[in-house]
Amino acid sequence: MRKALTMMIFLALSAVIPAVPTVMGNKGRASARSNDITVKEYIFEEEDNSAAESYRVLNCSTGIVSEVSVRDYVIGAVAAEMPASFEEEALKAQAVAAHTYAERQREIQKKSPDPALGNADFSDDPNKYQGFFTNDMIHHYFGENYDIHYKKIAAAVDEVLPYIMVYEDEPIIAAFHSMSSGKTESAENVWGAAVEYLVPADSEADMEAPGYIEETEIDEQFVKARLERVFEGIKLGDDPEKWIIVKKKSPSGTVLEAEAGGIEVTGGEIRETFGLRSADFTVSCKDGKIIFTTRGYGHGVGMSQYGANYMAQQGSTWREILGHYYSKAEIIGG
After folding, report:
1. Within a domain: residue 22?
2. Each residue of 140-188: pLDDT tens digit?
3. 170, 96: one domain
4. Do 161 and 189 reside in the same domain of the chain?
5. Distance of CA 331 to the CA centre of its chain
6. Three-state SS for 211?
7. 94 closest CA partner among 84, 103, 104
């Protein structure tokens, strides 16, 4: 049966896109994070100070909901989502994005509770929410470098903890990804609805990032079986070179239209079907293999983590980084 990617946007980051890895699974590599977004409308209200001091986080392994201070949560999110080796200003930008995400998700849960969360604001499941490490997990992950890396991340978080990003007085959809194809993507081309502050931004430094171009070779027979399983009614001929044909790309590189065995599909659907690093890809065949050549890593919307790190290396502040990638958003707090 055809698997549809209905990722309509506006106001709610609810589930993380195609099982993208956090830093835990990719030491030295920034995570690729993106989200399925649901169209809903919420009114964000002022909270009392006590409610704003912590988040309720569901531990998916134990089923226990714990109160985690805002500071500890943001530190844990940054540790999970961005390499500690990145520049301090990039870590600060990531901290503001993580804090903004959490504030938005908490409000969404208040207005439209997810029964699966119980009374939590979100869970520690990186396949549904942004990654998060407890202090024990951070200690285990960094090992003998714990003191150095924790101190660096905590210092970055402490400097920007009072700040979040808003648009029209509401916390923004703080989408981010590992690296773009050289220019970030519009939310409209990825999730089907325009968002004023999630529009293409130049990020040419991503083209020099490690793993920017990668080839994924998959056996032809597996590709055939997978396509027939995922897309109902597909008819594949004897020529593998015609099984997947790219028809149209966006200016940022995302495959908008492709044809698979006579069926019209999107790059996002192909990416999800084969677990590709991005939806900017080309397809070729050689020696019984289908070769997907991808550029970038992640959905490409919002802040590029490698782009943020490059900007920081060039002297940009966290405010300048966020202003570049989230146009029209406003930084508030302090």
Report:
1. yes
2. 999 999 999 999 999 999 999 999 999 999 999 999 999 999 999 999 9
3. yes
4. yes
5. 20
6. coil
7. 84
pLDDT tens-place string over residues 272-317: 999 999 999 999 999 999 999 999 999 999 999 999 999 999 999 9
Q: Clarify whether residues 153 and 291 are in a common domain.
A: no
List the structure tokens of 17: 């896109």
Three-class DSSP category at 293: strand
Is 38 inside any structural domain?
yes
| CA–CA gap between residue 177 and residue 299 (Å, rounded) | 6
Shared domain for 163 and 244, answered yes or no, is: no
Q: Determine the angle formed by the axes of helices 305-313 and 88-111, rounding to 10 degrees.
A: 140
- Judgement on whether residues 146 and 289 belong to the same structural domain of the protein: no
CA 73 to chain CA centroid, nearest Å: 18
Report d(CA 193, CA 16) in Å as an integer: 17
Residue with tokens 């997947």: 244
Q: Judge if 189 and 235 occupy the same domain.
A: no
Measured distance CA(32)–CA(296) in Å, rounded? 9
Nearest of 57, 161, 191, 170 to residue 99 by alpha carbon: 161
Same domain, 314 and 283: no
Evaluate whether residue 164 is within a structural domain: yes
Tens digits of residue pLDDT in 177-219: 999 999 999 999 999 999 999 999 999 999 999 999 999 999 9
Q: Which domain holds residue 71?
A: 12-199+299-333
Task: Report the pLDDT averaged over residues 81-109.
Answer: 97
Same domain, 83 and 227: no
Query: How many distinct structural domains can be found in the chain?
Result: 2
Contacting residues for 276 by C-beta, under 8 A, at least 6 apart: 216, 270, 292, 294
Residues 6 or more apart whose Cβ sits within 8 Å of residue 27: 83
CA dihedral 293, 295, 300, 306 (to 10 degrees): 140
Two tokens, residue 144: 């003998």
Spatial distance between the Cα atoms of 238 and 161, rounded to a whole number of angstroms: 58
Q: What pTM, to 2 d.p., does this model score? A: 0.85
